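User: Could you go from structure to sequence for me? I need the amino acid at each position, not a summary. Structure tokens:
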């Protein structure tokens, strides 16, 4: 286990204790020190995600059984071993089970180790199929969106399929989101190549800070260097939605991805109004109240529906 992984395990254990029902009071100073450490190095963020994934694996039946056999055992020690051992264990699982599936429900976000020290962060209502062999690491994005931190292995390319779009990386980090007519590719570290099925010779290269929409149909792939936009569009990893001149219609659609309480815009004239701000993905009511204050429009909040505006002709 590396020093960074050990630090990540220690921070995770400390933050879990601070949030437990037995915690006496929140430790704001410790949380501030964690934030400094977390933001200081991309490797810290990756190690913390791996530690979270390992911790979640300890919640499996096997992990619970182990904890029950050894009452009083320090879970941080379990985690220190599990962060490495569980990843190694998944390698074994990957060999014996060539294909693994991970899925999320609406509003659920998951961080999962992939068995080769790579990591996948899976967004709401998404599904990936993972197939690891000695010569190829293949992930099929069946639906939704995921971000991948890829462990280096030049002998086994890491390829993500999203419909007819392919994205290949070795030792990098990037996000892919499926749409009806293509896929968004967002690169946070390193370099990736993307192409369409049937056109392997027409590859587009993207580096850190690049974003591109790759259509399923034959068309030019426009690549833009927008590191700020890449970060904003991947804010879901921190359970946030960041709006930067998005229309009310687009913002409502984004919140509806995460919540059973759906936002409905009753007045079509409001749909194109632009908004700026940051919100938790699971707080559409806070967003609606902000819209009410910013646009001076009526908002109605119920358990299963949030209505913004009044339909034309209704008084």
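Assistant: Here is the amino acid at each position, in order:
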């Amino acid at each position: 286990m590396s020093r960074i992984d050990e630090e990540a395990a220690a921070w995770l254990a400390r933050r879990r204790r601070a949030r437990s029902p037995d915690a006496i009071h929140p430790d704001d100073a410790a949380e501030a020190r964690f934030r400094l450490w977390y933001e200081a190095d991309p490797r810290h963020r990756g190690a913390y995600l791996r530690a979270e994934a390992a911790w979640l694996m300890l919640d499996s039946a096997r992990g619970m059984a182990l904890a029950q056999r050894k009452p009083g055992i320090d879970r941080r020690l379990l985690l220190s071993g599990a962060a490495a051992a569980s990843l190694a264990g998944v390698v074994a699982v990957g060999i014996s089970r060539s294909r693994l599936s991970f899925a999320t429900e609406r509003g659920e976000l998951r961080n999962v180790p992939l068995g080769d020290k790579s990591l996948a962060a899976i967004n709401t209502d998404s599904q990936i199929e993972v197939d690891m062999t000695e010569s190829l690491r293949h992930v099929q994005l069946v639906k939704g969106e995921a971000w991948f931190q890829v462990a280096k292995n030049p002998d086994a390319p890491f390829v993500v399929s999203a419909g007819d779009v392919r994205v290949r990386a070795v030792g990098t980090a990037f996000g892919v989101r499926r749409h009806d007519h293509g896929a968004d590719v967002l690169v946070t570290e390193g370099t990736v190549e993307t192409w369409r099925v049937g056109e392997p010779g027409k590859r587009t290269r993207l580096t850190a800070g690049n974003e591109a929409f790759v259509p399923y149909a034959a068309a030019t792939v426009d690549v833009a260097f927008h590191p700020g936009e890449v970060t904003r569009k991947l804010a879901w990893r921190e359970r946030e939605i960041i709006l930067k001149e998005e229309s009310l219609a687009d913002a409502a659609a984004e919140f509806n991805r995460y919540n059973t309480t759906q936002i409905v815009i009753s007045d079509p004239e409001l749909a194109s109004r632009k908004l700026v701000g940051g919100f938790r993905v699971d707080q559409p009511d806070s967003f609606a109240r902000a819209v009410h204050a910013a646009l001076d429009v009526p908002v109605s909040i119920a358990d299963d529906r949030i209505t913004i505006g009044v339909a034309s002709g209704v008084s």
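One structural detail worth keeping in mind: The CA atoms of residues 261 and 302 lie 8 Å apart.
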